[in-house]
Prior knowledge:
The chain is an alpha/beta fold. It has helices spanning 5-16, 21-33, 37-50, 55-67, 71-82, 89-101, 105-118, 125-132, 170-185, 187-192, 211-222, 231-234, 241-255, 279-293, 336-347, 357-362, 369-390, 398-406, 413-426, 437-440; strands at 156-158, 199-204, 225-229, 259-263, 303-309, 329-330. Helix 14 links the parallel strand 4 (259-263) and strand 5.
Amino acid sequence: MLHDAGLQALRDAARLSPDNLPLRHHLAGQLLSKGYLAEAEAEYRAALVLAPRNAEITAGLAEAFVRQSAYGAALAALEPLLATPGYPPRLGVLAAQALLAEGDTARAAHRYYEAVSRDPSVGDADLAARLSAPPAPPYPVAAPVPASAPADGAEVDRSGLSFADVAGMEAVKEALRIKLLLPLQQPELFAAFGKRAGGGVLLYGPPGAGKTHLARAAAGELGAAFVNVGLADILDMYIGSSERNLRATFDLARRNRPCVLFFDEVDALAARRSDMRQAHTRQLVNQFLAELDGVDQNANEGVLVLAATNAPWYVDVAFRRPGRFDQPVFVPPPDAAARAAILRILCRDKPLAEMDFDAVARVTDHFVGADLKGVVDRAVEAKLHQSISAGRAIPLSTPDLLAAAQSVRPTAVREWMATARNYVMHANDSGAWDELMPWVKGKW
């Protein structure tokens, strides 16, 4: 919620007029200038839908990414325009900032000085000084922080979701119940069989299939604390700091048990050590394994560790040892029945005419939950435009969703399945990916 009345008024106006490009661009710029970075990013994205190759809007989005330390995303946004001769010099400076942050000093310097040579007014004295500074040593230096420094970013939250808010995925929800939830809900029964409350589950599958949504729902189902751990909460440039941040995050979860500790994009923290060139990155994996095991057998009791990844084949095999992430759970793309259920949940708080969600589900093959949300959002925007013109709320109808579905392309499911097929067919001697066999042999 914005705490600036002027910005809130602009946002309300943009919602009423979603296709007003100058308004959306102005709102995004105001949000960026006042430090509402995530909100600015969302508005720039919405503006780019209306004007996909607008250089000013792209520059604003890239700046929002850079200021959020999302340097890869900034470069991805800039690349199409940087390949165009005579691109605006400001884009080159933003690219230089992102490249320098990622350690590519040579390319950063090239981008910066090429941009400044065409327009000196875009120069950045601080950036220029960093580009001309002596190169950093070929190894990280020790962190000037005390050994007890806690992780700054991870915070305890409470989820308002439950499994009722997750459409379909019954097999996945049942696996989470047995592995994570029931030991806490029925401790005496599980204790009789020597099972303790706690453990880990690795959720894997294509992007947008609902892995993060499932993790939040699991915490809400249990009424447990929820700690959502991002890469920025753990990774640090100084030797030893990443390990300390990881240990502090586990300690935070242990102090708030029962707690669901969720690691998104876990392959970045638990990558195969055989692929790593530097010892300090392998040490982070070792620390992660040690935290999963706990200093004693009761250290992690009541701490449910969930991790999600789109690339499980890059996770170190040691994480699949019993007692760690020994039960990888595939989160598949939704089938037709699940897609219909997802659409019902997404539309349940909106004015509706008589709906045939099954009909929409039939024409959204290969759509995941994120894609279906995009369909509903687009249909709602079109219906809001009609309602404003009519001066009354016009209910959402089946044809509205069908029309929106025709204008939305499914995201990376096909590409993900193609990658999965390579691992299942050619790198599955251990049988780790047998669960994917029916999927990769399907019509993807």
